[in-house]
Amino acid sequence: MVGRNDLPMATFRIDNWPIPEGANYSKEVQTKAKAEIDQLRQVAEKQALDRKIRQAQVDLPRLKAKLYNGDAKAQVQSKIARLQTILAELQLESWLAKRIRSDYLELNEAIETVRQSVDRLKVQTDVLGNK
User: Fold this and answer.
1) Residues 6+ positions from 3 with CB-CB distance below 8 Å
2) Inside any domain, residue 60
3) Fewer Cβ within 10 Å of end Cβ, the chain: N or C?
């Protein structure tokens, strides 16, 4: 089964039935099973969020193209703004930012180079718009 854009759909349930627990099992086994089920639920929630994010990433360019149909400058500015947002996310998430700065120096330099390039693109786009 496939969803939008021919991406495979993930497994899903359409009910809300409780997951059966063994009535005749020892408390130790029930506790262990409950812990495993809780862990699997957490993984499933993360996977569901990841799917939503990935689908939004697929849909966003198409929706923005419709929004700015015929306005090339607005489309370019929109994409530049998205790049700036992604670069800002790398700095705003403190754990990740610290890790990149301390453990991945080359990556940190590459990110800064990209940031400077995006800033130059923004200036160039703004100048083109004034013509």
Assistant:
1) 9, 55
2) yes
3) C
Report H helices in 1-131.
Answer: 27-67, 72-92, 94-103, 105-129
* Non-local CB neighbours of 77 within 8 Å, separated by 6+ positions: 122, 125
Burial class for 125, CB neighbours closer than 10 Å (0-12, 13-18, 19+): middle
Judgement on whether residues 80 and 127 belong to the same structural domain of the protein: yes
Is residue 56 situated within a structural domain?
Answer: yes
pTM for the predicted model, two decimal places: 0.58
Flag the least confident range among 4-8, 28-32, 96-100. 4-8
Q: How many residues does the chain have?
A: 131
Does 53 fall in a domain? Answer: yes
Which residues does 124 contact at the CB level (< 8 Å), separation at least 6?
Answer: none
Domain span including residue 123 = 71-131
Q: Which residues pair with 8 in a beta bridge?
A: 2
